[in-house]
């Protein structure tokens, strides 16, 4: 139901009238990123996407560069199970070494459990518009309206006002660029294309057609290889990029590699991309989709429609997602300043809550734009990458980054955008069966490790023993990702999804864990061998290593996987005996430990961390994203988690800051969460480079993309998730209103954010106090509603609208 209708029905409208009329008048400005100069570097350019085709628009005056991507264009081929010899025979000797506390030997032997690297997301190519113009331009403006997913460039040159408008339509699978001028016959430009991949082109009938193919292998940029990029014309994913110019006035001429527009009044450029990717398990060269036909069909269909029709259809589709959530933290006007300057002044301490709202909504924009292709989640760079050897392969880094991308999908009301990730889990489970067998000797269920790609690679990375155990050997990603399936169910109430799709995957992940756990000397169940993502310990003897048994992170993930699988089986009234085996194992898991410094222990023993300030903090998984630790439920563990965060400090990379915002919010410390949120919005100089800073420097580029550095999209999503987490939290029994409201957000309103149990929530607060909350119950579930120490029960019918005042008194409905 439309938000205003709902609000009207609940009597909420009187309170929010001011907010919403304000919303209407400044919506466009509030949702706009804008700049007064063309982009020079990637990190200044504007990203557009329809969840498959991605474009990065530089908006130059004499020459406009547009990087093109397609979410399904990767190097590589389906996983070849035969490529992995059975190495599970090494497990007994690793366990033996660990039993003898010989960590050096365990680390060495653990290297036997490594496989190949993942493949890389490929850059499709760059489209260039070269204008036949000279001279100085004036009144330049480049903007992205995220409420419309529409970029616009305009400027004056030789007394002519030029405008370009760009969007990528999901319903019509095509990018459209409208070029216009306020003087007839002044549009003169050439369209050309270049790619780092193999390709050929020809033009006919106002259409430039580029067909090519991606490498069948790319080695990660951090790994030495004499031949890192390997092409073979008979292997790898094929792609097509077709460009059509529709002109009013003037003419279009073609050469084999260009379209040239002369003296036109207006031009609509259509761009259609397609690849032969036909699923994670199909050879894209031999058994692929017909990319040429697909690209041609999309182009023809779009060409039949007027620009206005294409745009209307695009807006209707896009806004059906974007408009679900509204947030206001301030009634001050949006500063009339380019976004990069706004960001700089914010970083110097300026108060700009509208920028904070923009950052939050930009996260939602990015997810809608990058995550709409079944089985192909948003990758490390979303869908925007110009490099043939991108940072960390632009892959799915499964020990945090891929999951962080989806932390806000449900809570920020974008369930549909979660689906590419959720469907990817099904693929991972298939390759993961072989991984469970050949790497770990386990014949039930499935497992997945540190890195993955469009082919759903699940084996550990590390180039067969050359990788460091601290990152290459972690094998808990299947265990982690299945909790996303349960979350999707709790937010949506989709029982068919839970029964037919989710449960078998969850059960498979849980089965692997049941068989992987071993009994330690104290009688507890632990993992062995085990690591804690990317961290190293120092033993009491001073050995620096990574392999041990029973890392807190492993056990936290197994605990969560078991608990959610149990709940699912109970909900589906199935598998009683299996449930008992999970319950038995849960009771014997080695519990959380508090170390001598008051911290939550990362390692089985109370060892020192080799790098106490490290960006990874996976042992806090139980605090966030899981719901095992909370100040109200487990005060001592929450205190220990806080201590751990204090020891880690706040200086860290983009994605790590994104995570810590959520962790601090879960500790109900809104002010610390907000401090880190502000730090996430630290201005970072754009440089078009892949320079990595591992120990700090996290922030935001001028185009509001997250800086690890380099650009990595997870920080954007983690930061946006953190905004919701400050305003609303939930677990499987409770909903907490304003649980971590920072002092800086004294007054505000939000609508359309969601809580577990199938609730859609709108709130208004003033002077730090809740005024009114409206709750739409989509599943009719019972929950405890918390605010400011008070608890009431939400007992609702499916579809009920409940309104509560600030003291949690329920207002009567008509
Ligand atoms: C892990 C992290 C890095 C980076 C990379 C993609 O290796 O430790 O910081 O995010 O993944």
Q: If you had to describe this structure to a student in words, what would you say it looks like?
A:
This protein has 814 residues and is an alpha+beta fold. 32% of the residues lie in helices and 24% in strands. It has a 9-stranded antiparallel β-sheet with strand order 1-6-7-8-9-18-15-12-11. The chain has a 7-stranded antiparallel β-sheet with strand order 2-3-4-5-10-17-16. Helix 3 packs antiparallel against helix 4, helix 17 runs antiparallel to helix 18 and helix 18 runs antiparallel to helix 19. It is globular and about 85 Å long. The site of alpha-L-fucopyranose has 11 residues, from loops.
Keywords:
single chain, 814 residues, alpha+beta, 7-stranded antiparallel sheet, 19 helices, globular, disordered N terminus, binds alpha-L-fucopyranose
